[in-house]
Design brief:
The chain is mainly beta. About 10% of the residues lie in helices and about 30% in strands. It binds zinc ion.
Length: about 90
Amino acid sequence: MPFYEYRATSADGCRHCRDGFTKLQKLAEEPLDACPGCGAPVERVISAPQVVSGKAHMQRPDNIEKHGFTQYKKIGQGVYEKTAGTGPRIIKGD
Ligand SMILES: [Zn+2]
């Protein structure tokens, strides 16, 4: 589920919405039009999605396994140890 960012459209919101707040919502859920704290009108702020790119090695091992990947970590000169997935436990590169 994505996080959506909301901000009060007027200056008379509470502290919560004046500075903006995030809310975890289902994609199908209707966007909020009022602050849940004070009822002031709010609008959804489109923020950059949190995309994981080029950092596959930063992924959590259980996540990697779930997607059918195998992850190795370098433990020495040309030697890699498996941290997730299926495959040989140790790979030697030379
Ligand atoms: Zn508010």
